[in-house]
Design a protein that fits this description.
104 residues; mainly alpha; 6 helices; 0% strand; elongated
């Protein structure tokens, strides 16, 4: 399905060229932006109206509803204890942190 959508989208690419050729760069881009806004808004609304949450998602949402600050801190504490106890996990976390900070 996704392949079909991308192929169909590729078929509309020459229309952008025709719009730019006929109306000029600025007007052609404005028309394409307005059309993209309208089509994407229609897509978002359509997806919102036609999709439903699964039973597993509803159960998960109910289980995690407002855990409270104390319970959240206990969970964070457990995660940090596991991190400090496992040296390989600590090494991976450290390497990831170093590589991320060097990319900035």
């Amino acid at each position: 399905m996704l392949q079909i959508i991308s192929v169909i989208g590729g078929l509309f690419a020459p229309l952008g060229g025709l719009l730019v050729n006929h109306y000029g760069m600025v007007q052609g881009m404005r028309i394409m932006y307005v059309l993209a806004f309208l089509f994407m808004t229609f897509q978002f609304v359509g997806r919102h109206l036609t999709t439903r949450e699964t039973e597993a998602g509803i159960k998960k949402r109910l289980d995690t509803r407002e855990p409270g600050p104390k319970k959240s801190m206990v969970e964070y504490g457990g995660a940090f204890r596991e991190l400090w106890a496992d040296s390989s996990l600590l090494l991976i976390f450290g390497c990831t942190s170093c590589s991320t900070s060097r990319q900035r």
